[in-house]
Amino acid sequence: MVVPNFFPSKGNVLKYNGFKELAYLHPNYFVPNKKILEDYDLEQDKYVFIREVSKGSLNYKNVPPIGLSKILDLFLVLD
Asked: Is the CB of residue 3 less than 8 Å from the CB of residue 13?
């Protein structure tokens, strides 16, 4: 099993420093293709994309759940 180092575990486990979300979005590995925006007729910096994850996800183990509507309310305040 491979888990972040903050996750309590025993046995045959490989631990690493970090979160998988940071790994796949790290600029050393991911470069956004702005041409994609043209394919969908979207303007840069005009949209927010939200990816919901399971409430049982390890990254949010100690974070109280917040409803999507509350998150959207925060963006409306910033607009």
From this structure: yes
Neighbours of 19 (CB within 10 A): 13
3-state secondary structure of 18: coil
Average pLDDT, the chain: 76
**In sequence order, which residues have a C-beta less than 8 Å from that of residue 18 and are 6 or more positions away?**
4
The one-letter code for the residue type at 55 is K
pTM for the full predicted model: 0.38
Domain ranges for the chain: 2-78
Gap between the Cα atoms of 67 and 74, Å rounded: 11
As a whole number of angstroms, the distance between CA 23 and CA 27 comes to 9
Cβ partners under 8 Å of residue 9, min gap 6 = 1, 3, 15
